[in-house]
Design a protein that fits this description.
The protein has ten helices and no strands. Helix content is about 70%, strand content about 0%. Helix 4 packs parallel to helix 7.
Length: about 210
């Protein structure tokens, strides 16, 4: 990785820290100067527009989700459990780290139009990969006619992430993950399938806390 790429990753990490606990994307490129101790000119070279900063942060989130998806492929052979625990992980990661919920602003066609080609294409690629991964899992769980199940799931996930963040839900709330998984399973059209029980979610939370502390 070149120095330029390392600096870019560092600036995105700084941006994510600056956004922790925020309900709106109120970070500008100029704010990164003091936070990162990097010159304004260098920051503006990395992010030629304010839209580029937003899209770069979104790309980092989608990259992280795709990396977790790879781990979930190894950890869960059952597609239903894989998709449920994956999105429970996302919910816990957001709440426990007070991450900015990127779904508040992305995907957004107006922002993408304002972004430079590099960031726009990168986001579109990552978004497409993540969308295909989710659609593939929903299909593996079992296609159910009548509705666009993938669209229902995406809309629910966006709302659940934002609402949980707005309500300052606790990342250790077992009931929250159980209800979250129950809703996802029903939206996929599989109310007949057994979801993980509360004891299993409790054990999962213990494992996640241990992994985070390691």
């Amino acid at each position: 990785m070149s120095n330029w790429e390392q600096r870019g990753h560092y600036l995105i990490e700084v941006a994510q820290r600056c956004l922790q606990g925020h309900k709106t994307f109120d970070l500008c490129r100029s704010h990164l100067v003091k936070a990162s101790q990097i010159s304004k000119g260098t920051i503006y070279n990395h992010f030629p527009s304010e839209a580029d900063l937003i899209v770069a942060v979104a790309c980092a989130d989608y990259s992280r989700w795709l990396e977790q998806a790879k781990e979930d492929e190894l950890n869960y052979s059952d597609p239903l459990r894989r998709i449920l625990f994956h999105h429970c992980w996302r919910l816990r990661d957001t709440l426990s780290n007070q991450r900015f919920v990127i779904e508040r602003v992305m995907p957004n066609a107006e922002i993408l139009v304002q972004a430079t080609q590099y960031y726009r294409h990168r986001f579109e690629k990552l978004y497409s990969q993540y969308e295909l991964w989710n659609k593939g899992l929903i299909s593996q769980v079992g296609d159910v006619a009548g509705f666009d199940r993938a669209e229902l799931v995406v809309n629910y996930l966006r709302g659940a992430m934002i609402n949980s963040d707005d309500a300052n839900k606790h990342s250790g709330d077992v009931q929250m993950y159980y209800q979250f998984s129950y809703a996802l399973t029903h939206l996929m059209g599989h109310s007949d399938k057994r979801i993980p029980d509360k004891m299993e979610f409790s054990a999962w939370l213990v494992q996640e806390r241990a992994a985070s502390a390691a």
